[in-house]
From TrEMBL:
Database matches in PANTHER family: ALIPHATIC SULFONATES IMPORT ATP-BINDING PROTEIN SSUB, TAURINE IMPORT ATP-BINDING PROTEIN-RELATED
Source organism per UniProt: Candidatus Kentrum sp. TUN
Annotated ranges, domain ABC transporter: 4-229
Family: Belongs to the ABC transporter superfamily.
Keywords noted in UniProt: ATP-binding, Nucleotide-binding, Transport
Protein name, per record: NitT/TauT family transport system ATP-binding protein
The UniProt record lists the keyword Magnesium: no
Pfam family, one: ABC_tran
Family annotation (InterPro entries): AAA+_ATPase, ABC_transporter-like_ATP-bd, ABC_transporter-like_CS, ABC_transporter_ATP-bind, P-loop_NTPase
A GO term for molecular function: ATP hydrolysis activity
Amino acid sequence: MAILELQNVSFLYSNLTIVQEQDLSFESGEIVSIMGPSGCGKSTVLRLLAGLEKPSSGKYFFNGELLERPSTELRFSFQDFDAFPWKTVNENLLFSGATTDSGESTFNINELIGKIGLNNHEHKFPSELSGGMRKRLALGRCLAGKPKVILLDEPFSSLDVDARQEMYNLLQLLWMEWNCLFVIVTHDIHEAIILSQRIILSKALPFRKKNEIKVPFKYPRDNSVIDTPEYRSLIYETRTSQ
């Protein structure tokens, strides 16, 4: 059964249709990318999946139940926000983390800091971190809540090529260990192929699923896939489907 499901969902803003009659479903433990032209409504779909926007029509289900409000089991990482600037790495993770009824953390913060590669940086503020480190912190903030779903909006667009590849490697390792659903909005075809099992392609506004491409490579993936005929075929199929 799908963990996330949009059924005939439309979303209007000031009488402008942003998302039109969409049926989308996502299984637990997948990595799925959403691509399409700029301004086609991709980020709005992500906000609908997060429960941050309500459909104008249609229904949205999380874990088989109608979602009426944002759930703590869904975590959203905004494109232009990595962390609270007035909090240290430690404080950001603790603030974002799941807690017991008595307020105690349900995760080992030192273990999480190690997994996201921020050892010896836990007392630094975001302004003292590199761009790649801030993205690691953003992923850590999502994982600290022990969610079933992580939604990422253009998460690595501000990074250089080397830093992006480091984040691709990290995300795959974390996904293989945590086995939660990742849904990623991206403009980068290579990023979508390296990370995803499925790529959902939209037409121009309003958002309408035009095609879906399945990516066959086994995890973990690295740049060695670039030299394969399958990769070149996926690049061509993705470009010609947009």
